[in-house]
Amino acid sequence: MTTGEKIKYFRNMRGISQETLGQLSGINSATIKKYEYGIRNPKPDQLLKIANALGISINIFMDFDIETVVSGINAVRNKIEQLKAMGNEKSAKEKDTYDLLLIINEMMSRGYDFLPVDIYKSHALKYLIEDGKIRIPFNAISGVGENAALKLYEAAQKKDYISIEELQEKSGASKTTMEALERMGALGSLPKTSQMTLF
């Protein structure tokens, strides 16, 4: 699905017209129409306005490089330089990552910090403010869509699990998602299985 198709899809899901989306985002409705038909591609700042107006995460349009972002501003700047050095050899995904990292670099330069995904504190879709920092949501994880993020969030909020295995079963999350959460340290000290060792 192209960026324009995603804009149209979520606009229709919200039941609003191109004119209303234009008013909510501060972007001319004729420009919204061009985005939806693939005549023009929105820049990252425009995508951010559209995502906010639609009440969705910008991750739907661009991949969020969690590991780099939570490693701090120097890691973000190093990744920007690596991608910049690729010139025109960047894939579409790498161009999106580059554009998003430029926005994040600007935010960090202004004093914003990001907190990693946390099974107990992250929201499914929203970036939450916590102690003056921004907590990354579940759908920022590569490959985790809106529905999967919502199911994971709902299961996590119930807190009726005692292992990673149980959380995966209750949330319906894929093995890949659980491995990503574990790799990021998002599961804290939660044991892998519910089995007890007697000896």
Written overview of the protein:
It is a single chain. The protein has 199 residues and is mainly alpha-helical. 53% of the residues lie in helices and 4% in strands. The chain has a three-stranded mixed beta sheet with strand order 1-3-2, with no helix packed on it. A hairpin with a 2-residue loop joins strand 2 and strand 3. Helix 1 packs across helix 3, helix 2 packs across helix 4 and helix 8 crosses helix 9.
Strand order of the largest sheet: 1-3-2
Order of helices and strands: HHHHHHHEEEHHH
Class from helix and strand fractions = mainly alpha
- Assign an overall shape: globular
Number of strands: 3
User: Count of helical segments?
Assistant: 10
Gyration radius over CA? 19 Å
Biggest pleated sheet = 3 strands, mixed
**Span between termini:** 53 Å
Assembly type of the chains comes to single chain
Strand content: under 5%
Poorly predicted sequence stretches spanning 5 or more consecutive residues: none
Calculate the mean pLDDT score and round it: 87
Proportion of helical residues: 40-55%
